[in-house]
Design a protein that fits this description.
By secondary structure, the protein is an alpha/beta fold. It has 2 domains: about 10-30 and about 280-380, Aspartate Aminotransferase, domain 1 (Alpha-Beta Complex); about 55-275, 3-Layer(aba) Sandwich (Aspartate Aminotransferase, domain 2), CATH 3.40.640. The chain contains 15 helices and 13 strands. Strands 2-8-7-6-5-3-4 form a 7-stranded mixed β-sheet, sandwiched between helices. Strands 9-10-13-12 form a 4-stranded antiparallel β-sheet. The longest helix has 21 residues, at about 280-300. The chain is globular and about 55 Å long. The termini are far apart. The structure holds 4'-deoxy-4'-aminopyridoxal-5'-phosphate and glutamine (GLN). Its cofactor is pyridoxal 5'-phosphate. One of its GO terms (molecular function) is transaminase activity.
């Protein structure tokens, strides 16, 4: 078959989770919690189903959920947006990003991604017939290089994709970074896809700098959120896209022929749950404690800790481990770590088009403390 995506295999997250299951390893690979969501959220789904919310909701999503999202965007980021024309509920951030790209990218348009980047971005751009332009984040620090981004912009640049807090590095863009980006894009027509799925996991007293806070960015942005991350329900696959009305109109043209709409009872449950801001306001503190527990344990091992101020991921260098396997390519090292040490991780090379290998792997710490302690005791053997 003449493949549309010849370079694509099964995602690294699926591969590593399958290996973790097969070998009984502690799975710190694929990003998802090993603890359950608030039982009230499950009760709210059941209540929505019993109340008869079991048929198609409106194409852009249940109005109450869009209204709750609009209220949150205003309360947290000062953005006033119209739920009728500027917010769409999606089947997770994954569908949001693909749909945004299909809605705006013409064949031959250039789309800039900052590497390392989440694994769906590049195949999404390719499916739209776009040309992927890769700009590296600064090696070692994973900070944005604005000169390099500026140099990559051409008259064919249709969009730039950013992701803060950043998967896999955990780096968080500052307000100054966002202001620089705003100034850089001001004289252009470049659209922005701002992947903010980890918006509520920001540590060390920093604040999430949503594109929504910067009028020059919000006016050109698709702002992508995911309830899966925020409420410990990655399997529900519900997210949102906030974008100015003309962009949302184009987004919905694709959305209605892609999924048309997203499951009804979960949307009602999420809308009810959002009335209380405490869960998302407390999430950073919740994950910061887990990050600190995990980092303190890793500091007792030979892994080199990389800085991280957001997401539920911790990256580590493997170059000074006391085993010969440290010299393996990252992907093979992760296979070995899973099989022999009993802890699954994700190689950073999976986030690069050319498989760049810097001897760094990613662990997910969205786990019960006991799971983290078990993983740490295994990792201490290295
Ligand atoms: N973007 C990033 C950076 C992610 O880490 C993820 C989740 N792995 C997604 C998008 C997709 O989110 P969802 O599960 O809501 O589709
Ligand atoms: N976003 C998750 C991660 O980075 C994985 C989601 C998926 O498996 N597609 O681990």
């Amino acid at each position: 078959l003449d493949s549309r995506l010849p370079a694509v295999g099964t995602t690294i997250f699926t591969v590593m989770s399958a290996l973790a299951t097969e070998t009984g390893a502690v799975n710190l690979g694929q990003g998802f919690p090993d603890f359950d969501c608030d039982p009230a959220l499950v009760d709210a789904v059941t209540a929505a189903m019993k109340a008869g919310h079991n048929q198609y909701p409106p194409m852009p999503g249940v109005p109450a959920l869009r209204q709750a999202m609009a209220a949150k965007m205003q309360a947290l980021y000062g953005l006033r947006c119209d739920p009728a024309t500027e917010i769409t509920v999606t089947a997770g951030a994954t569908q949001a990003i693909l749909t945004a790209i299909l809605a705006i990218v013409h064949p031959g348009d250039e789309v800039i991604v900052l590497e390392p980047c989440y694994d769906s971005y590049v195949p999404n751009i390719e499916l739209a017939g776009g040309k992927v332009v890769r700009v590296p984040l600064v090696p070692g620090t994973f900070r944005p290089d604005f000169d390099a981004i500026a140099a990559a912009i051409t008259p064919r640049t249709r969009a730039l994709m950013i992701n803060s807090p950043h998967n896999p590095s955990g780096q968080v863009w500052s307000a100054e970074d966002m202001r620089k980006l705003q100034a850089l894009l001001a004289p252009t027509n470049v659209l922005l896809i701002s992947d903010e799925v980890y918006e509520h996991m920001v540590f060390d007293d920093q604040e999430h700098q949503s594109a929504a806070r910067f009028p020059g960015l919000a006016a050109r942005a698709f702002i992508v959120s995911s309830f899966g991350k925020t409420y410990h329900v990655t399997g529900w696959k519900v997210g949102t896209v906030v974008a100015p009305a003309p962009l949302t109109a184009e987004f919905r043209k694709v959305h209605q022929f892609n999924v048309f709409t997203v499951n009804t009872p979960m949307q009602h449950a999420l809308a009810a749950h959002m009335a209380d801001p405490a869960p998302y306001r407390q999430l950073s503190g919740f994950y910061q404690r887990k990050r600190d527990l995990f980092r303190e344990g890793l500091a007792q091992t030979r892994f080199r800790l990389l800085p991280g101020q957001g997401t539920y991921f911790q990256c580590v260098g493997i170059e000074s481990l006391a085993v010969a396997e440290r010299d393996l390519p990252e992907a093979e090292f992760c296979q070995w770590l899973t099989r022999e040490i009993g802890v699954a991780a994700i190689p950073l090379s999976a986030f690069y088009g050319n498989g760049f290998d810097q001897k760094v792997v990613r662990f997910c710490f969205a786990k019960k403390d006991e799971t983290l302690r078990e993983a740490l005791s295994r990792l201490a053997r290295l």
